[in-house]
Amino acid sequence: MASIFAHRGRYRAQAIDKTGKRHTKDFDRHAQAKAWASAIEVESASEHAPELGGPTQATLAQTLRHYGCKYSAAKGGAVQELGRINVYLREAGMALLRLRKTPDGQDEIVEEPAQEREQKVADGLRAYLGQRRSKSARSLAFRARLSGMRASAISKALIDDFVTTMKLDGASESQVQKEIALLKAVFNKAIARWNWVGFENPCIGVRLGGSETRFVRLTKEQIEKRIQRRIDSIQPAQIVSLKKIYVSL
């Protein structure tokens, strides 16, 4: 906290900046000293202010958008993660996020209005997506509800209800796990890096079933075709190299 006091016929102001360093300066007038100290305090406070205004101000959709713009591009599964985030953004009436390459080959996140995205979807795929959305109507309605809620208002009980709703709509254990894992990661990042002090992650402790392990069984003919394709893909130079290795053995 800044302090201002009389010192040798003038006014001395002391204030601590955002790094914790104490600054001292003398002024002829008390108002000048107060204004200088206040400016340092405001700068220090803004440096530590929670991003998005904190969990009592940011909606879930805004939180997901912020997370996607800051972190998703650097991930191997960026497209899949953005797809899950976009479901919430679409329900909130916000622009969607898309991964694209910059001229120098770097990945970046850009915004795209939902209407423009819909226009790019082929008619057949649009019909298929419409059918999927109708089958998961209750889950979409729940996401719409969550999207507009302040992060601080989302409770553990509400997340439990969301899990139940997704399962009732036919979502697999794996799909539910990925959905909750995204929300959990976003909230953890907000707590660790966005200065969301006092916020408790509502996804902590949510009990989920095990992921489904999938096995693909191939027939003898399918195995032989894959082996032949692999053989056909070997370049002449590779064959020569393999012969040299064989001779040296």
What does this structure look like?
With about 250 residues, the protein is an alpha+beta fold. The protein has ten helices and five strands; from the N terminus they run βββαααββααααααα. It has helices at about 30-45, 60-70, 80-90, 115-120, 125-135, 135-145, 155-170, 175-195, 220-230, 235-249, and strands at about 5, 10-15, 20-25, 95-100, 105-110. The strands form two sheets. It has a three-stranded antiparallel β-sheet, with helices on one face. Helix 2 packs antiparallel against helix 3 and helix 3 (about 80-90) crosses helix 6 (about 135-145). The N and C termini lie far apart (about 80 Å). Residues about 245-249 have low confidence and may be disordered.
Short structural summary:
The protein has 10 helices and 5 strands, in the order E-E-E-H-H-H-E-E-H-H-H-H-H-H-H. It has 249 residues and is of the alpha+beta class.
Question: Which keywords apply here?
Answer:
disordered C terminus; two-stranded antiparallel sheet; 10 helices; 3-stranded antiparallel β-sheet; single chain; 249 residues; alpha+beta
Topology:
Blueprint: E1 3-7, E2 10-16, E3 22-27, H1 30-47, H2 60-71, H3 78-91, E4 96-101, E5 107-112, H4 114-120, H5 123-135, H6 137-147, H7 156-168, H8 173-193, H9 220-232, H10 236-248
Antiparallel strand pairs: 1-2, 2-3, 4-5
Helix pairs in contact: 2-3, 3-6
Measured between the Cα atoms of the first and last residue, the distance is: 78 Å
Summarize the helix and strand pattern as letters.
Answer: EEEHHHEEHHHHHHH
Q: Pairing-aware structural class of the strands and helices? A: alpha+beta
Largest beta sheet, briefly? 3 strands, antiparallel
Strand order of the largest sheet: 1-2-3
Low-confidence stretches: 245-249
What does the average pLDDT come to?
83
- DSSP strand (E) fraction? 5-15%
Number of helices: 10
Number of strands: 5
**Helical residue percent band:** 40-55%
User: Can you tell me the overall shape?
Assistant: elongated
Instruction: Supply Rg.
Output: 28 Å
